[in-house]
């Protein structure tokens, strides 16, 4: 296959996946927006009515966290689903296997953009103060993308040989959601655990995004924080790609 | 064009396939038993440009594995494969089709999967519709078409690829007589413009008619090769013998 045709293939698989996902459903594409909103609504109800955190603009704080975390969860899980779904094709036709992972990530990226638009809507009606530092969000999203795709490659490389990877990762995503300060503010966590929590690059990305968009620029907007995130993300991507490249050769036999 | 040098393809058939971690952990203490199955053994083969090579043999003799190696879907266990030029795989027509999408969408999807670019698909679009005679159904969902129509569509898309090498795996068995005739005409044309074709079939009549050379596979090895008539004779004779 000519190299320039990969782009067309990636786009076509992504569009197909997007169409099929919401085919035959009444609300169609709105589901991709509704899902994080429903999670948001539930958690907001529980954590602002039943208990209260002392967080300024908690609504925005929570929503941004959920939107970013959902992206990571979607990219990693859906890429494995798509790989499985395309098994029959992979057994018969040759094209580079990374195409599948990238397509899947683009579908999730489009959902992320729509979700960010919804977030902006909430941002405006909440009357929060807009600062140009909010544009830093683009950098954080980029970092999150690299991190998620790296993870997706790693998981997809192992998935055909060990199907457990999917289920294990599903649990990890759930666990990660609560270990990362998404619902609660970091201030309620004892200081001695902070180092551990921020070993997780996603926690850094989410905190950084919040500082950039909602609060004031603080420690997670620093160059050092970006450097740490990028180091982790790029190494993960390198490991993921390396492993994927090696193991994808036998996908036609393993899937 | 296509060159195989001492190619082996081994499948490891575990006596019990272990897919989950638990199965693997448990099996650490047991001896991992598997059989080495030589799907292809020491295959040396050259196909020249413009040649039409027929491949025959019993079920499980390695015909499809051979095509998959040419199509790069499988990697050889050992040996060297050199292929000059792009390959259009005809393996199992319609394998990437999505029943919930329209015929139009499926043409783009299938084209993309087979390695075409957007412009190529757009250019060939009208030809594909005409050749498959599905003009009325462009906006219908694919699942509402009969299976014969779906295969016609897949075939039409595949032949519209302008690649110099064509792999054909038992595809002409489907479709009605009109369409089969159409297919044969296309193959005739392809031969004339010098495409290289590797043709796997149980339809010995078609093999004799189209192929310049035939190889007979048996248990992963090339048992005989040469002119179609001679090889078909050997094959027929072998087939009438009781299966060992």
Main features:
heterodimer, A: 255 residues, mainly alpha, globular, B: alpha/beta, Rossmann fold, 6-stranded mixed beta sheet, 3-stranded antiparallel beta sheet
Query: What is the highest CATH level, the class of chain B?
Result: Alpha Beta
Low-confidence stretches of chain A: none
Overall 3D form of chain A? globular
Distance between the termini of chain A: 22 Å
CATH homologous superfamily designation of chain B:
P-loop containing nucleotide triphosphate hydrolases
CATH topology of chain B: Rossmann fold
Q: Please state the average pLDDT score of chain B.
A: 85
Q: List the domain count of chain A as a whole number.
A: 1
Global outline of chain B: globular
- Judged by helices, strands and strand pairing, the structural class of chain B is alpha/beta
Radius of gyration of chain A: 19 Å
Order of helices and strands of chain B: EHEEHEEHHHEHEHEEH
Report on the biggest sheet of chain B: 6 strands, mixed
Summarize the largest interface: chains and residue counts: A-B, 29 and 33 residues
- What is the count of β-strands of chain B? 9
Tell me the fraction of residues in β-strands of chain B, as a range: 25-35%
- CATH architectural label of chain B: 3-Layer(aba) Sandwich
How many individual domains of chain B? 1
Helix/strand/pairing category of chain A: mainly alpha
Provide the residue-averaged pLDDT of chain A.
90
Could you walk me through the main structural features you see in this protein, from its secondary elements to its overall organization?
The complex is a heterodimer of chains A (255) and B (244). Chain A has helices at residues 5-21, 30-50, 58-85, 87-90, 98-126, 137-158, 164-179, 194-197, 201-213, 223-247, 251-254. Chain A has 255 residues and is mainly alpha-helical. Chain A has one domain (5-254). In chain A, helix 1 crosses helix 5 (98-126) and helix 6 (137-158) runs antiparallel to helix 9. The radius of gyration of chain A is 19 Å and the shape is globular. Chain B has one domain: P-loop containing nucleotide triphosphate hydrolases (Rossmann fold, 3-Layer(aba) Sandwich). Helix content of chain B is 37%, strand content 26%. Chain B has a six-stranded mixed beta sheet with strand order 5-6-7-3-8-9, sandwiched between helices. In chain B, strand 8 and strand 9 (221-226) form a beta hairpin. Chain B is globular. The model of chain B has no long low-confidence stretch (mean pLDDT 85). Chains A and B meet through helix 1 and helix 4 of A and helix 1 and helix 3 of B.
């Amino acid at each position: 296959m000519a190299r320039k045709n990969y782009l067309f293939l990636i786009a076509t698989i992504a569009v197909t996946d997007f169409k099929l996902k919401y085919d035959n459903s009444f609300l169609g594409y709105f589901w991709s927006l509704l899902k994080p909103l429903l999670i948001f609504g539930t958690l907001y109800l529980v954590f602002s009515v039943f208990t209260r955190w002392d967080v300024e603009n908690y609504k925005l704080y929570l929503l941004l966290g959920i939107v970013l975390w959902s992206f990571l969860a979607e990219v990693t899980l859906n890429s494995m689903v798509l790989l499985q779904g395309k098994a029959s094709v992979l057994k018969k036709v040759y094209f580079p296997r990374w195409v599948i992972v990238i397509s899947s990530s683009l579908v999730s990226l489009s959902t992320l953009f729509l979700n960010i638009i919804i977030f902006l809507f909430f941002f405006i009606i909440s009357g929060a103060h807009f600062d140009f530092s909010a544009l830093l969000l683009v950098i954080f999203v980029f970092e999150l993308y690299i991190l998620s795709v790296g993870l997706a490659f790693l998981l997809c490389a192992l998935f055909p040989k060990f199907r457990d990877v999917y289920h294990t990762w599903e649990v990890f995503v759930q666990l990660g959601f609560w270990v990362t300060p998404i619902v609660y503010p970091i201030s309620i966590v004892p200081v001695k655990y902070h180092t551990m929590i921020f070993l997780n690059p996603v926690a850094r990305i989410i905190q950084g995004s919040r500082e950039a968009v909602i609060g004031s620029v603080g420690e997670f907007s620093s160059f050092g924080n970006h450097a740490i995130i990028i180091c982790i993300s790029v190494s993960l991507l390198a490991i993921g790609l390396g492993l994927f490249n090696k193991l994808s050769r036998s996908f036609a036999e393993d899937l | 064009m296509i060159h195989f040098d001492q190619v082996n393809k081994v499948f490891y058939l575990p006596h019990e396939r272990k897919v989950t971690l638990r199965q693997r952990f448990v099996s650490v203490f047991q001896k991992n038993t598997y059989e080495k199955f030589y799907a292809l053994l020491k295959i040396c083969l050259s196909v020249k440009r413009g040649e039409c090579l027929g491949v025959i043999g019993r079920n499980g003799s390695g015909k499809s594995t051979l095509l998959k190696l040419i199509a790069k879907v499988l990697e050889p266990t050992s040996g060297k494969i050199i292929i000059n030029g792009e390959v259009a795989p005809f393996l199992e027509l319609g394998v990437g089709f999505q029943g919930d999408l329209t015929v139009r969408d499926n043409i783009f999807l299938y084209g993309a999967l087979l390695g075409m670019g957007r412009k190529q698909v757009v250019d060939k679009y009208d030809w594909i519709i005409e050749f498959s005679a599905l003009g009325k159904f462009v906006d219908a969902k694919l699942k509402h078409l009969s299976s014969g129509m779906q295969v016609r569509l897949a075939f039409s898309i595949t032949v519209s690829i302008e690649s110099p090498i064509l792999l054909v795996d038992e595809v002409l068995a489907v479709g009605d007589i009109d369409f089969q005739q159409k297919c044969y005409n296309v193959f005739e044309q392809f031969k004339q413009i010098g495409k290289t074709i590797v043709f796997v079939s149980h339809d010995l009549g078609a093999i004799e008619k189209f192929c310049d050379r035939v190889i007979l596979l048996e248990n992963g090895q090339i048992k005989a090769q040469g002119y179609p008539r001679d090889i078909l004779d050997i094959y027929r004779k072998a087939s009438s013998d009781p299966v060992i």
